[in-house]
Design brief:
This protein has 245 residues and is mainly alpha-helical. 94% of the residues lie in helices and 0% in strands. The protein has six helices and no strands. Helix 2 runs antiparallel to helix 3 and helix 2 packs antiparallel against helix 4. It is rod-shaped, with a radius of gyration of 59 Å.
């Protein structure tokens, strides 16, 4: 199992979940909390896949170690058979010696075969170890990002709320621009001005009428004085005073 196949699948799943959450998000805090849960689950999936890869590597290593042990054992058997053959040949038992020499050859063949298998698997083990190391690094990176997301959770929630509030303010301002209430106030102000002008006109009219009444009183007073003097003139009693004056 390769690094790309594991993290490619995980990253695709993460992007799909993030895009879905962002598109459908109404509450930023709930969205981020869900994102943390999904990311945590994705990390668990990655851990499971990586653990399987590590398990396969360790199984391969154990098999290889057993092959190395088997190669050594076949070598020991070859040595033992060869020594036994030498002993029998020294004792004059040529047939027995040939038998054990044949066993030694068979053991040596098995040793060579097993050693070749060990050599063939060695590069595969090295490659798998490189993949496992990269997978571990990638998993640690995912865990670090998760911790960063958790630590930034409050900041992100706060920023999302501020952005939402700003959008609401902008929407409110836009609605005021579309339907300006000051135009209605202007019409009402014009109506008030007309009422004030009407009241002022009535006040001036009332004041004018009052002045006219006082002027009439003054005219009456002057006429009364004239009548009095005329009467005095006619009676002659006031003639002297008028002449003297």
């Amino acid at each position: 199992m390769s690094k790309q196949s594991i993290f490619g699948r995980i990253s695709t799943l993460i992007r799909a979940n993030i895009n879905s959450l962002i598109d459908e998000a109404e509450d930023p805090q709930k969205m981020i909390d869900q994102l943390v849960r999904d990311y945590t689950n994705n990390i668990a999936d990655a851990e499971s896949a990586i653990a399987e890869t590590i398990g396969q590597l360790r199984l391969l290593e154990r098999d290889n170690a057993e092959d190395q042990k088997a190669a050594q054992e076949w070598g020991n058997k070859a040595i033992a058979a060869s020594r036994k053959g030498d002993e029998l040949r020294a004792a004059g038992d040529a047939a027995g010696a040939d038998k054990f020499d044949s066993l030694a050859k068979i053991a040596l063949q098995r040793q060579v075969q097993t050693e070749n298998e060990v050599k063939a698997v060695a590069p595969q083990i090295q490659q798998q170890q490189v993949v496992v190391d990269k997978l571990k690094d990638g998993l640690n990176g995912m865990k670090l990002k998760l911790e960063q997301l958790k630590s930034k959770r409050n900041e992100l929630v706060s920023r999302a709320k501020v952005a939402d509030a700003q959008n609401k303010v902008h929407d409110a301002v836009k609605s005021v621009d579309v339907m300006d209430p000051t135009s209605e106030l202007g019409r009402f102000e014009e109506k008030v001005r007309r009422q004030e002008a009407l009241a002022q006109g009535k006040a001036e009219l009332s004041a004018s009428s009052l002045d006219a009444q006082f002027e009439q009183l003054e005219d009456v007073g002057e006429l009364t004085e004239v009548e009095a003097r005329l009467a005095a003139l006619k009676s002659g009693g006031a003639a002297g005073s008028l002449t003297a004056g």
